[in-house]
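Fold sample X.
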Amino acid sequence: MTVLAIINPQSLLGGEIKKSLGRRRELWSDVRLLGTEPAQVGAVTEFAGEAALVQECDVEALQGVRLAILLPGDEDPTAAQLSLPADSTLLVVDPKSGWHGATPAVAGIDSTEDRSGAVFISPSPVVILLAHLLQPLQDLGTSAAVAQILMPASTQGQAGLDELFEQTRSFLAVQDDKPTEVFGKQISFNLFPLSFDDTRHLDPLTRILGGNPAVALQVVQAGVFHCLACSLFLGFDQDPGLEKLRHCLAANPWIEMAGEGELPGPTDAAAREEILVADLRPSPTRPGSYQLWAVMDNLTRGGVSNVLGIVESLLAPAS
C-alpha cells in the first residue's frame, strides 16, 4: 500500500500536480490532500475525478504516508514542523527558503535513490531549465555560462496571471487603476530585473552540476503569462564545434532543437513537455564561445513533470 500526501495543493501548480497524479493510479493506493495554512484547510477540491476535502496536516493525517509532496505556501514549514513519520520521504517543491541538507533533484539529470526519511527538492523552473541545458555539455569542458532568464506571470500563481490580465485590460482601456499587489508595479508590456537569493537558484544548480560550469545569472520579470525564455552564453576551454554542441544538446530527450530559421517564443512552448532550443551559433566576438535561445513551460517540464519524474524515481522498486 503506497500512501502519498499533497500538502498545500490549492495553487496553480498544485492543480496541475493533482490532475497529473490523479491519472497515475499505478503510483499510489491512496492520496491525501492536506493543508498547513488556514486558507487551505477545509477547501473542497477534486482529485482523480472525485470530490476531495483538504484536511489539516497533522500527525494523524500523516500516519502511513510514504511520500509527501510539499507545495509552496505563504511560509515553508520545516520538516520537524510537519511531523512526518520517520520512514517517510519528503519532496519540497520550489521552496522559498534554503532547506539546507535537502537534496535538489532534476528528473532525467541526476538520480534519486529511494532513501526513507530523506528530503528532496524539486527546484525552481530556472534551475530545471539551466540544468537541462548545461548538464549535457559538461564533458565538452564548459568553463562559463551567462544566462538571462525571462520569468512569466504564472510563476506567481493565479494571482500573478490575474494581475497581468487586469493590468493589460486597464492599459488598453487607458485607465489608471492598474493593480500592483503581486508585482509591485506595472508588469503588463514591461520588463524589470528581479533580485533573488542565491539559495533559491544558484545553490541548487551548483549542487546538481557539481559546480561546473560557473554560472552568472540575471532573472527578469516579463509581461507574459506562461513559459520561461532564456538567452544563454557558453564559454569552453577548447572549441567543441557547432555540430558537437548541437549533438550533445539533442541527446537530452527533453530538448527539441528548432529547425533552421525557427525562433520559438513562450507561446510555442506553452503546454509542451520539451524545452525548445534555437539560434545556437558561435559568438561573433569570442572565438570558441556560443550562444543560444531556449523556451520552456514552467508548469509542465519546469513544474509538474519534474515533480512526477522524482516521484516515479523515489517509488521505483529497488534494483
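Fold sample Y, listed below.
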Amino acid sequence: MLKSTTTLFIAIVTFFIIVLFSSCEKDDIISIEEQQVEQQSKPEVVQDSTYTDAELLKVLEEELDYIELEKQGKIVEASGMEIVKENPKKVYVHYMPWFQSKDFDGYWGQHWTMANQNPDIKDANGNAQIASYYYPLIGPYSSSDPDLHEYHFLMMKLSGVDGVIFDWYGSKDLYDYGLIKQATETFIYTLEDLGMNFSIMYEDRVAQQAKEQSLSATVIEAAQEDFLYINQKYFSSPEYMQYNGKNMLFIFGPQYLNTEAEWNQVFDVLPTTNRPDFLTLWGASNYVGANASGEFLWVDQDHLLAHEHYYNTYQASNKITVGSSYPGFKSFYTEGGWSDGINDWTINLNNGNTFIETLNYNHHELSDFLQIITWNDFGEGTMIEPTQEFGFTYLEYLQEYTGVPHTTQDLQVALDLYHMRKDFKNNEEAQAIIDRAYKYIKQLDMQRADKVLKAIDRFY
C-alpha cells in the first residue's frame, strides 16, 4: 500500500499547487547528471527530484489501471526483448549457477565460503566476508532467486549479450551438483521470457564421480544418462542455443572419456535427428574424434599468446571456432583453502584494458562466435558482472563492442529494478507495479520504467 494517507494527501495538495504554478515547475526538475553531482557533494540522503510528485502520482494511477486491465485479459504482453546490435557477431557469457545465500536458501553455499570464509562476518563497510577478491554490486546472492534472474539477464540484454552457457555438472544428486542442476532450471522461464539463448557446458569428470559413488554402473553409462537428461530437459526449450540449425553442446575437456569409441557409445543414446554439435576445450577435439564439431578457447596464463596459438594451430581443423574474452584472472582458491598453489598465476585486469584487448582480438572473422569468460566466477576473478570495484565498466565496454544503443543509465534502471524487488518484497501491490516496470524494460521504454520505479520509491 501507499506509505500513508497523510503522505498521499500532501502529494495530492502538491499536485494542485504544481498545476496552479506550472510556470515554476521547470525550476524544480533537475537532470540525472545534476542530481548525481548533488548526491556526490552531500553526505545525507536526498530524495530524487528528477520527476515531480504530480508526474509520479499520475504514473501510479495509470499503472494500477493497467494492472486491472491485465487481470481482465485486455492487455497481453508479448515475450521477448528485441535488441539492435551493430556488431553481428554472437556473444555468449559463461555462467556459474552455483551460489546459495542465507537470505534466500537459508545457508551460505560453498562458492561464497570455500573452506574458510564466513559471509556472516561483515567488514567496516557492511560487506560480507566472501571467497573472492571482488564483491558483487548487489552483494552475495542465490542462483535460484528469480529477482537475480531478472537482474542478470536484463543487464546482459542491454549489453548486447545473446545468451548464456551454463557450467553444468550432470543430472545426479552428488556433492552440490544437484543444486546446480536445479538452479539452472530456475533460469529457463526468464530466459524464454526475454528471448535469450542458453546452452550447457558439461563436465565429464562428473560421470567418473557418479561411477565411483555407485550412482551408475560405468562412466559411459553415467554420461549417457546425463546426455539423455540434457536432450529431454534442455534441448526442448525454444531458446536452446543453435548454430546453423543445430543444438550446441559444450564439454570442459574431455577429461575422463578420451577415445572416439567411448564417445560413440555416449552419443548413441541420442536420436540421430537431435544430435548436437559438440565442442571441446581447445586442443582436445582429438579425444572425441568425429563426434567433435569444433573447439572453444579458454582463459590461459599465456594470455594473448594462447589466442594466437589457438587460431594458428586449430582453426583449420574445426568446423566451429569459438573465441574467448575475459577481464583478467585472479584465483581465490589458495587463500580460500581449496587448493595449494593451483591456479596461482594471474592476468592483470589492467584497468579494463585486458578485457578490451581480448574483445578486440575477436573483432574479426577468426571466430564464429564469442564466449565471455565469465559472467560471475568470483572464485577465479573472471567476472564481468557489476561489482563494487568496477561498477558497470565491463558492461559499458561490451555495449561499445556489440554496438547496442543502450547506456549506463539503462543499466542503472535494471539495477534499480532489482533493488526495488528486495526493498518491497512483502508488498504485493508494489510488486505488481514493479512487474510493469520489468515489462517496460523488455519493451526498451527505459524512461517509463524509471518513472514507475521512482514512483514506487517515493510513495510506497
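Sample Y note: The domain at 91-409 is CATH 3.20.20.80 (TIM Barrel).
Also: Confidence is low (pLDDT under 50) at residues 4-43.
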